[in-house]
Predict the structure.
Amino acid sequence: MQSVARSRARRAGSRGPQIRGSSLSEVINPFVLYAGIALGAVGVLLALPRKRINPQVLGALIGAVALGVVLVGLGVRAGASDALPNIYFYVFSAIALGSCLRVITHQRPVYAALYFILAILASSGLYLILSAEFMAFALIIIYAGAILITYLFVIMLATEAPSEEELDRLADYDAVAREPMVATGVGFVLLAVLTTMLFSGASQLPAPESFASTASGDAVLRDLPGAVEKALRRAGLMEDGEAIARDADGRPRIDPVQRVAWVGLIGEDPASGEPVVVNVRQVSWPDDLHANNVQALAYDFLNRHPGTIEIAGVILLMAMLGAVVLSRRQVELDEEAKARQARHLHVEEPA
Amino acid sequence: MHNLAGPLSQVASSADVGVPAQGPAWASLIVFLPLLACALCGVCAIVPAMRRTKLPAWITVALLGVSFVLTVLLYQDVSAGEHAKTVLVTSWEWFHLSWGDAPGQQFVASFGFYIDSLTVLWMLFVTGLATLIALYASEYMSHDVGLGYCRFFAAFSLFVFSMACLVMGDNLLLLYLGWEGVGLCSYLLIGYFYNEAGAVAAAKKAFIMNRIGDLGLALGIMLTFWHFGTIQYAELFPLVAPYVEALKAGDIGQIPLVVQAIPLLLMVGAFGKSAQLPLYVWLPDAMWGPTPVSALIHAATMVTAGVYLIARTYPLFAVSELALPIVAWVGTLTALLSATIAMAQFDIKRIMAYSTVSQLGYMFAGLGFLTSTGAAFHVFTHAFFKASLFLCCGAVMHGFAGQLDLRRLSGVSFMKGWGIVGIAMLIGCLNLAGFPLTAGFFSKDMILAEAFVTPGPGYALAGWILLVTAGLTAYYTFRVFFRVFVGPQHAEPGDEVHAHDGHDAHFHPHAPGWAINSVLAILAVASILAAGTYFIEKEQHGWVGKMVHGSTAAEIVVGEGEHAVRAAAFRHDLVGEHAIHGESHEPAGDHATPEEAGGSSIAHGSFLGMDPHAVMYYVSSLFGIAGILTAAYLHGPRGLFGLFIGSRTEAATSRADALVPALGPLVQWARHKWYVDELYDFLIVKPLWVLSHIFHLIDQLLIDGLVDLMGRLPSIGGRSIRPSQSGVLHGYAVGMASGLAFLLLLVWLLTL
Amino acid sequence: MTGVIDQIGGMLAQAGYPAPMSVLTLSHYLFVSAAMFTLGMVGFLTRRNLIIMFLCTEMMFQAAGIALIAASRFWLNHTGQSFVIFVLTVAAAEAAMALALVVLLFRKRESLSAEEWAEMKG
């Protein structure tokens, strides 16, 4: 299996950057990685909330250094292969991880939630550089706009009313982390294992299939004749009264690989009287004709995951029902109370 | 007269003719009527109105009586032809296990009955005596009318049922059922007075001693099945026949060791049940039971089950080189040992018990001397006279409030109403003592003669021992008679005064009633008549001989006519020689009457140069009369006058007592039963006691400790890991996360 | 600042996918994803406020989302993005349930501490 994958990687290697290597050390120096992770563990440990001495700033600094160590470690190898990510990657990831650290270390839930919004925003930045514009905006709208606001509401709702003399009093469970040592240890051991696996696995990943022939991307346009037609008309490559030709199956004759389409005049079939395209000619796509992200995503989403959408709908319905049932305030009346109420109603009725 | 060996050998070889005919179905009733009686006694125990009457006794007597009548009918049926025939009656299939089609892969045991003349002989005296003794017990047990009465007769009936199963069963398993059944009933009846510690201990002792023997029997049965693949007599005996033929041909080497081992194991069972060395010690203690029980179970019937077992499987015993000599010598030594003990005892019932052991020794010796006829005949006669002796002792005990000490009773025969008891006792004593022309005389003589006739390992010495024992027997028998039943009238009450005559402290000896008297009379007459059976079929050593010869217990005879010789494996030299030299000049002595048996031969032993058959009558008479005279001299009254009213006590006692110091510690030892009980206690009970305590400790510390540890381990484990189940969400989350990390690490390492 | 907007706008104008991405670049995103996941987990394990704990689970969802989007970019395939939609759906459902639970629990104990709910029975 692996050998097949690797041979595929070699074949694909002729296009795009060289993808080689089979171990962690090809992605990052393991020593640097583990040192960075250990440093990060120390930083997070220090940054977690405590009762008396609370070196959160120091922890955050150490955490930042650790992140820097790992990113530089990664950058050394990536720089050599000219595969460094966009500069904004560093910006957004620093913001995202920093606010994540703040989420778990801030003693006040409201601030934690707000920092989480920041982390979401930074994540959507990362989505943007990863060419997932739709998801970037959807994330902001859904997560930051809806879910996190709900969180904030609940935080407001479910907080003990502060008394006059101690407005600033923190709840005990907010002020002190629980067993930070164990949790940080477990968490960062997991991180070490996870990154080791990711990196040593990533270096063995086969390259993606050819760009144009992938089912998504511009190949989508084969099934979107309207978009192609619109672009062709805008570029003046199609006249009025012309349409994209169709083959025997009724599919539009568009070749996204060669970036050509066949168009012709709309005529009438002499036999059946139905409209057909006659005088077919081949036109090349204009250079700026590409499927955009929303088109591609929507096509993939609706075309390839209809069952999953159904399941997601059921999940949402169930969640709604569950939330209604759970948060319903149950008033339990004993027999006497019921009787009293009934009497009350009975008395009021005539009036 | 001479050619009896002819038919005999035919009879012997008839054991290996095919499957016997079907017998009359009503024969099953002989077995099941006692069981019905048992059940009805149980019903009596439940219904209060019936419980207060003597109804259980009458039910038992009636049903056992019917059983006896049926047995007589069965006898007529079986012995109708010229030769006694063998019939089978099958009630139902009891066990049928099958694990293959090959022979030996089926275990079949039916609840069926194998009836030949030996069976009938045994059943005749079992049912007959049981009926009589039940009648006797109806009066004897009258003090206990109520629940105890029901219990007694229920166990009594159950005993007869078990005994019938034992005797009539057509396979060894049914025999074993009966064997255990009689053991159980023996236990129940010995422990009848369960309020008394002695009775309970005696019951347990009998039961445990019998277990030892029963183990041997069980192993023997298993080995039989293992080797022969069947335990049905009808199939078993034909399978043994080839070995018998091999024996006749003198080819001992052909008989496998397993076959020779089977009788050794069966023998152990017989020794246990019939109270032979070294398992005899339970029988004297069994006298704790009510006297009718002692008479029926521990004198007449159950204890002869061992003899029956050996007689029934006689072909198996005959082909073993070791079995019969062991049986002979164990019997001989048991006879001597218990006779010496009996001489020194004061409890008359106990004396009778030891005499039973001794007489059983004679029977075993008889079996060992290859005279199953003699053994069976002795069983037959002994059943009657010993039952009557016991019942006489019981009558005395009943009348004198449990008094059994011969020093405290005297002249009982002359008391008002005790005449029949006295006469019955005299007849019984004469029989036991082997007084000439009594039944006991003939039967014992037959065994004694064979001791000298049959060549075997030290058989002549055994014969002498048995002769001396016969004298001793006569002595202790008449010691009882002279002390208790004649002489001046004198009686001290026993310790059951209050129990028996609770309304006043005065002791009123009461003479036996009609039931006891009639039974004693019948038994006395029967003991005399038993002698007559010796003369019925003279060619075959009497009626009993005819019965035995018609069964599988018949001696195995080699050769024909004049040259007939009884065979057993240990005589293989002789047999082999005979087989090779067919014209050998062995006279057919042992099956001819003693008068006719002439001349010496290598096959015959001799008694001081004379033919044992010819002289044994006189020699044993001599010993018997000498014993009686000694008893008369030491314990008897002066002169004929003193026999009736003379003042015996002082003089006779002094004469006997004067002898005691002269014998040194022997008397003391004999009085203490040669310290056998103490020896067993020291050799077996004490070590076992120590061992059991050690095991108890091991059990408590090691086994219980381990079990407790097993129990505590989960608890300890649970306690040690309980903190991890704090219920706090984080604990589980940590566990989950570290588990995830571990699993990922594992996956990574495995795919590296 | 305008440079940033321009560059982002340029990327948006790219519409379809740009050239394939290197594994080494992908590793950066995966690291960020793993680090965010770890921070979420550490937060879940250490914080005792039920709401924060749920927030941390959302954070882990987010980390998964970044990984999915990065993979989608690497494979030039939109399925990863579709998955993120589902992740968002599940996260929303989870948030609804979780917050309903929190409200319920808070009503009973007047506390948001997870340790209040440590009884094994009932």
